[in-house]
Amino acid sequence: MAAYHLSFENTENAFAYKSDKELKQARFLFSTMSYKSLVKLGTLLTPALIKFGFPVKGLIRKTIFGQFVGGESLEETANVVDKLEKFGVNVILDYGVEGKEGEENFEHSCEEFIRVVKYASGQPNIPFISIKVTGFARFSLLEKLDAAANDRSGFTGNVHTEVLTEDEKAEWNRVVERMDRIIGAAASGNVAVLVDAEETWIQDPVDAVTMQMMEKYNRNRAVVYNTIQLYRSDRLQFLKDSFEESVKRNFVCGVKLVRGAYMEKERKRAAELNYPSPIQPDKASTDGDYDAALKYSIDHLGKISLIVATHNENSSLYAVRLINEKKIPHNYPDIHFSQLFGMSDNITFNLAREGYSVSKYLPFGPIKDVIPYLMRRAQENSSVAGQTGRELSLIKKEIARRRFKKRSI
Question: From CA 70, how far away is CA 311, in angstroms rounded?
């Protein structure tokens, strides 16, 4: 079968959606990101420059924002969504505002998420939206609930509210009610909701409320997906526990498998507070657990609805191999691939060309509000071994291919 010979080296497919000018801009950006000291300086300075009103928004918009973000508004993302649709690529839409506290801000975020849901419900190639519980819940409230959950029982849906004051219990009820409103709107609009992972010290109540929502809304299909970070040494078991719980309670277990996004922060906190690091001892252990989680999920497709969210080419090819060995159709509704917008186009567009269900994770929001997201992208690209180099080599390869083709005509 052709899919067994799927290659992620085909740059013509990977960058067909980009103009020569856009490719050269991407080459400049990833070249810059290859200098770790420059990235470190940029991630320290940029938030401050924005905060104090320095005129840097134009530069950010033309560089890192244009590479990784769909636009400042929902309307601006439409151009990107339409372009991706032409190549058979769907969109996971994400209102990328982070780190705002206060009930007024939480309520505003909730309304924005609902607005995103309603927009997505009218677009055939936006089957998913992404939410962060910290977008509408106080961080320290989640931290207090997590500290009470020594058994790490998030997969059961148990939230230890007995540790809260009466005011805090009312506050938590508002968090649950907001999440219910967002997911209720999604269920009505035939859109699925991906709940982002958070730091380990607030993850348990996030897992618990997500399981509660799955039990309510995932009766016939996956409306709610939990994100499982396999760079955590306990998450493969958590996946299995979550699935067994879903079978017991008779609902579809929605899972998005990622490697993880907070590694350096997690290790630093564990060292400072003198507790065992929750992070895998090495990359090989993460890779092993990720692929084991893939196999487990694909073995239980139908009862598990799976999103393979990775930039790792080997894991993507492994998932493809499992799909073909089991003779599962490429567009089977319970398995979906995803990569971040602006990265790993060689995976996304080559999978789409083979008929797999695949999407780009597309954040949007005002430049000043998506700065935390953009700084993470810059840091990850400079710290992940070989990621920037791989992106750069593929871009250079495609630029050279196009030059050669023009000369040959």
Answer: 19
DSSP 8-state symbol, 64: I
Number of independent structural domains in the chain: 1
Contact (Cβ atoms closer than 8 angstroms) between residue 178 and residue 136: yes
pTM of the model: 0.93
The single-letter code of the amino acid at 134 is T
Render pLDDT for 141-190 as a digit per residue (tens, 0 to 9).
999 999 998 767 789 888 999 999 999 999 999 999 999 999 999 999 99
* Bridge partners of residue 37, in order along the sequence: none
Amino acid at 135: G
The domain in which residue 261 lies consists of 58-381
Residue 228: CATH number of its domain: 3.20.20.220
Backbone angles phi, psi at 192, to 5 degrees: -100, 155
263 Cα distance to chain centroid: 15
Amino acid at 77: T
| Interior/surface letters 54-87, b for 16+ CB within 10 angstroms, e for the rest | eeebeebeebbbbbbbbbbebeebeebbeebeee
- Residue 272 to residue 249: CA distance in whole angstroms: 40
With 0-12 CB in 10 A as exposed, 13-18 as middle and 19+ as buried, what is 15? Answer: buried
Q: What angle do CA 212, 133, 245 make, to 5 degrees?
A: 25
Under DSSP, is residue 152 helix (H, G, I), strand (E, B) or coil?
coil
